[in-house]
Amino acid sequence: MPLFKSVRSVVLLGAFLLAHAVLQADDWPEWRGAGRAGVWNETGILDTFPAGGLKVRWRTPIYSGYAGPSVSAGRGFLTDSRRTVGNRAIERALAIDEHTGAVLWTQEWPADYTGLQLIYAIGPRATPTADGARVYVLGAMGRLLALDAATGRILWQKDFVRDFDASVPSWGMSAAPLVDGDRLIALVGGEPNAKVMAFNKHTGEELWRALSSDWEPGYNQPTIITHAGVRQLIVWHPRAISSLDPATGKVHWEVASEVDMGMTVATPVHSGSHLLVTSFYNGARMLKLDHDTPGASMLWAGKSNSEVATDAIHSTISTPVIDGNYIYGVDSHGELRCLELATGKRVWESMALVKERARWATAFLVKNGDRYFINNDRGELVIAKLSPSGFHEISRTRLIEPTHPYARRRELGAVHWSHPAYANKHIFVRNDRELLKASLAREP
Length: 444
Hints:
The structure is a single chain. The chain has two helices and 32 strands. A hairpin with a 3-residue loop joins strand 19 and strand 20. The protein has helices spanning 3-24, 160-164; strands at residues 56-61, 70-72, 75-83, 88-97, 103-112, 129-131, 134-138, 143-148, 154-159, 178-180, 183-190, 194-200, 206-210, 223-227, 230-237, 240-244, 251-256, 269-271, 274-279, 283-289, 296-301, 321-323, 326-330, 336-340, 346-350, 363-368, 371-376, 380-387, 390-398, 421-423, 426-430, 434-439. The relative contact order is 0.13. By secondary structure, the chain is mostly beta strands.
């Protein structure tokens, strides 16, 4: 073969392999990844953890907060907070170089945590939402900022309390803003009739508002699904599960569902014609979505309002998953459960994932191929397969030290309640002291 043809073949092969590698890489631009689905599609990921633990690429010192990181276009985004005097604090957004961990920019604003459950008033809750040249961040007291992703410059901002007469709920504003085309959709809790609002994502101009704020907004993440050929914005608040037109805010349907203490925390889970929500006190509600037009009805609902004698699944923070004809999720005291999708009937229960039976025990499940990566509130990362036959643990490693305070006694003295980001064959995870990046790539 002539030399130039050989060289050309090598170059083309290299370009193909590089393109393939790029195609196999994934960012994590928002809460629970792209589409808020809790699915990580990358390949080339390790099968078991190294005996000595994960290879940490970098550690960057940060302040306190629950907000998980997002990763987009070579940058990691995060929010945190540091106390100043009394209940006053300085909240901060920061961008971090994905490859080195160097802080690229910061943007700060004042906050006063008076009125919150103070033991948990350690910082922002909402994961930043990255959208190309912009990133949107939300503070615990309702300060929404649109920032230039490259510089941190404020493009526009809103104060939910000052601008819309919102009342901040006991555990702070938690719903990460949602980008939909040229709209930014936010759970505001404003008056009048501004529980949920849409803004022009470029300018901050109000586009629409919807739903009465006669009750607190809750803590849920707005999501968009497509069913019956219609895009539907799902807003689960403490009085109902509502479906809205994301373009106009018009209500398609609502199913009443009262939730005690406003604790609509776990993200709704959509699969086919099913939509699942679950809360700590009131348990699970499974909706059946209409096939031909936007609509829904209650398929089944848990009957227990007890936080101890639970049925079906009473999740607090962690979002369950639907896999085939079964539901898997963490109940109120750490029990990993499998339920029948059609009936809510329990198939099995296990304490093997969280180990410690404790109130508000939490683990975050992310699907990768036919298995799950699960980080629990003990700071561990677990690879497991879930099936109707049981919980099948493959590998477990220590991920990060739990540092979040907790009102009740726990074995480790603290918990880890921050959702990690899975991006470009790495995991990005934070506590109240550091953000770290560790490799999940399969060794060649």
